[in-house]
Design a protein that fits this description.
Chain A is of the alpha/beta class. At the A-B interface, strand 3, helix 3, helix 4 and helix 5 of A face strand 3, helix 3, helix 4 and helix 5 of B.
Chain lengths: 234, 234
């Protein structure tokens, strides 16, 4: 990403996990004034929201909006309905089938709300930590989805049709988890502030066996960086 | 629209105004099992939600979901922030400039949530009453927006990439308001149940002067149908 003009605002989607935290640090590094947005969607792993708050404070943002949207009214996922989170799925399945932790249209919903906020703020940039290498196979994390959302954003907004398009960037889209972690370390990010687990204990400890924990653990190993996470099972 | 197979489900966006009520009646006529969705977005004209409830009951739906999403957290519009609703704008301005009642990314947000619900319900059809003839000039009511959202939906969802695409229809997109009203009358719709006003009185009466009231009044006149609305000013 080009260095930003000093006053440029960027809206950054911040879940509290590794990817979005790294994206926030990346945007900070590029010189943007940061507007972080997190979603309290009654997710099973709402503990990630306190991580998001800590990451936002650590990196330094102009504003952190925690937007409530109850996706349990829609359901259809192990993260928003009473469905068990699968554990210890073999790595071969991670990207070949879409798991039950897929939340219907989640990134479309989140990006739409981020788009509305960007338009109101007169921000010209939205950053999302979507990644399609070490990921859970969700359709709305792939590069083609990002490209298509950009097209929609240009047509859907007053800003877009009046020649002030809001650009969507997914700077981590092609990186491995290990590369993402190394980049974050470079930016001075403290990953002990982040949380990836889909099914944490009441005290916030990571389960260690869900897809997201497995991908996280593997990432730290491959990056050669000590994993600061407390897992319940090794 | 083709006649539906008896068990086909359709999600219909229902605001409580003329267009969405007519779309609901249209989908009923086509044989769909109806799942209506309305949004309580803390709009200035929340009275439309009681209209949506009455219309849903009148037409007959399987379920009516009133989804809360506080768009005042985003603001940027006379409908969601402390900004005056313009009155008696000349007709020449209705479609040549985007008015301050534009709500940033509203239809993108609403369609995203409808998409999530459709996917969870295993519905293959979403209907929206978007109209680009007698309308307020909003970018996200135009045919090109609808086409683009369809492309996004195909890429964004598990249903889409697994070959069970969710189709988006805007059956009123090319109709005048008068044609829409005549169609609704044909379906036996009672427009006294609907509300269009952006700036109603506390008792629900329409202001008579906002763009939406002006478009509604003109529509009834041109349709040659008696307007059942109680306006505060003539």
């Amino acid at each position: 990403m080009e260095s930003a003009i000093k006053s440029d605002k960027a809206v950054v989607l911040l879940s509290g996990g590794i990817d979005s935290a790294t994206t926030l640090a990346f945007a900070k590094h590029a010189g943007y004034r940061l507007y972080a947005i997190s979603f309290d969607y009654k997710q099973r792993h709402r503990v990630e929201l306190s991580c998001a708050r800590r990451v936002a404070a650590f990196v330094g943002v102009e504003k952190h909006l925690v937007f409530p949207i109850d996706l349990t009214a829609v359901g259809g996922s192990a993260l928003t309905a009473n469905i068990k989170v699968p554990k210890h799925r073999p790595e071969s399945q991670w990207t070949t089938e879409i798991p039950i932790t897929y939340v219907p249209a989640r990134n479309t919903i989140f990006l739409s709300i981020a788009l509305a906020w960007a338009e109101t703020l007169d921000a010209r940039m939205i950053l999302i930590g979507a990644n399609a290498v070490d990921y859970s196979g969700y359709p709305d994390c792939r590069p083609e989805f990002i490209v298509e959302f950009q097209r929609l954003a240009n047509l859907a907004t007053k800003a877009g049709i009046e020649g002030r398009p809001i650009m969507l960037q997914a700077p981590l889209i092609d990186l491995t988890k290990a590369e993402i972690i190394r980049k974050g370390v470079e930016y001075g990010l403290d990953y002990s502030l982040t949380s990836s687990c889909y099914d944490p204990a009441f005290d916030g400890r990571a389960c260690g066996g869900c897809d997201s924990c497995l991908i996280r653990r593997k990432g730290f190993v491959e990056a050669g960086v000590a994993d600061p996470t407390h897992y319940m099972q090794s």
